[in-house]
Design the sequence.
């Protein structure tokens, strides 16, 4: 099959292509203009309007939510009848969450406030019959205009009422480091089920992995470059975030560990329950200045000055045993217990516009960037106090893209 790519100035219906701004496992994302407004267009690599394309379009079209990228339309290119499917969404200016925290080095309060908004948004998404199924920091944008988190890339999503796409005996597509223990029990053949149904438990687990990374700059069970990732997720206890990064408050560390309990019954059972726990922590520690200390600091030799902080508030993988995809890129931030709060901690005032934030592609496929198992930028910062024996993974790419 010949894969066509639009050039600068090409027209897709009423839209004029400006530039390519991202590339993922199932296609490329372009910035486009129509009547003075910008949009993101995801050009899929396949020609068929198959089950995965139908899911992504249906999911986005049924999620008119403030913290979900807005669906605009669907088209084909270069031929309107037989060309590559194109998904058109709003264009959001901002940085993916991993790049945002690497640049701004936020404090605990900022992290939990943003995390609360993300969890609420996913709860709203679930109530409308959709599960994202690939939650991680690179699929969340921090909008430059107001600092709001925006969920992107619903290419792996499940939609209530649509037929199953995943082959029986296989796990749904996703990112290996964010899979739940119960999913990997199925993958290891330790259950009697023929198919695995991804549910709220999996989604909240992935949120726990994301929170752990936000607090520590490490994944709780390591990277896929280290043999035995599946067994560690199933059997090993994650180190407390506070043990990895002493700047993490004890109460936040305990909340994160509860999200990573092996037994799903020991975790938060709903989005609302998790939101309630986060809200309680934020209220209880409203006057605690230790929550306003930055969790990380930029490397002294980075050669960059961090801009002001942002405002507060495609094949499915094989039948497991082989989830180890291309290796991830190096880690990105440095812990610094004594870093000054100004500029690298909590924002000075809520509602202020984020200054100096570069535009990032935000569309149905997200602003894919080279490097990192999670599609993220690594090596932007270095650890200030590296742990003995810590290794730096090699660069790589995301696994588990659907067909």
Sequence:
């Amino acid at each position: 099959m010949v894969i066509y790519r639009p050039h600068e100035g090409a027209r897709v219906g009423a839209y004029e292509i400006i530039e390519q701004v991202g590339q993922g496992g199932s296609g490329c994302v372009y910035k486009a203009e129509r009547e003075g407004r910008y949009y993101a267009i995801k050009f899929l690599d396949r020609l068929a309007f198959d089950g995965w394309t139908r899911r992504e379009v249906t999911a986005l079209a049924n999620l008119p939510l403030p913290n979900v990228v807005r669906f605009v339309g669907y088209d084909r290119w270069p031929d309107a009848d037989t060309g590559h499917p194109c998904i058109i969404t709003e264009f959001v200016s901002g940085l993916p969450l991993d790049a945002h925290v690497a640049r701004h080095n936020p404090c605990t309060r900022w992290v939990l406030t943003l995390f609360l908004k993300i969890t609420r948004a996913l709860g709203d998404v679930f109530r409308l019959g959709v599960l994202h199924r690939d939650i991680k920091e690179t699929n969340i944008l921090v909008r430059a205009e107001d600092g709001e988190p925006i969920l992107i890339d619903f290419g792996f999503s499940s939609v209530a009422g649509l037929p199953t796409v995943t082959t029986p005996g296989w796990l749904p597509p996703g990112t290996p480091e964010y899979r739940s223990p119960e999913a990997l029990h199925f993958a290891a053949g330790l259950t009697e089920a023929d198919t695995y149904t991804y549910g709220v438990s999996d989604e909240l687990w992935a949120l726990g992995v994301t929170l752990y990374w936000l607090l520590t700059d490490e994944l709780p069970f390591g990277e896929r470059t280290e043999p035995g990732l599946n067994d560690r997720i199933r059997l090993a206890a994650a180190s407390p975030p506070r043990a990895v990064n002493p700047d993490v408050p004890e109460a936040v560390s305990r909340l994160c560990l509860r999200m990573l309990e092996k037994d799903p019954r020991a975790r938060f059972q709903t989005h609302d329950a998790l939101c309630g726990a986060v809200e309680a922590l934020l209220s209880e520690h409203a006057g605690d200045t230790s929550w306003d200390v930055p969790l990380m600091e930029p490397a002294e030799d980075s050669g960059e000055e961090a801009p002001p902080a942002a405002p507060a508030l495609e094949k499915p993988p094989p039948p497991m045993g082989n989830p180890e995809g291309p290796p991830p890129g190096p880690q990105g931030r440095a812990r610094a217990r004594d870093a000054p709060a100004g500029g690298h901690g909590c924002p000075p005032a809520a509602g202020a516009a984020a200054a100096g934030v570069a535009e990032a592609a935000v569309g149905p496929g997200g602003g894919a960037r080279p490097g990192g198992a999670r599609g993220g930028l690594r090596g932007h910062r270095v650890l200030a106090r590296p742990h003995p024996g810590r290794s730096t993974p090699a660069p790589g790419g995301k696994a588990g893209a659907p067909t």
About this structure: The longest strand covers residues 15-23. The two ends are 14 Å apart (CA to CA). The chain is about 25% helix and 15% strand. Residues 96-335 form a domain with the Transferase(Phosphotransferase); domain 1 fold (CATH 1.10.510.10).
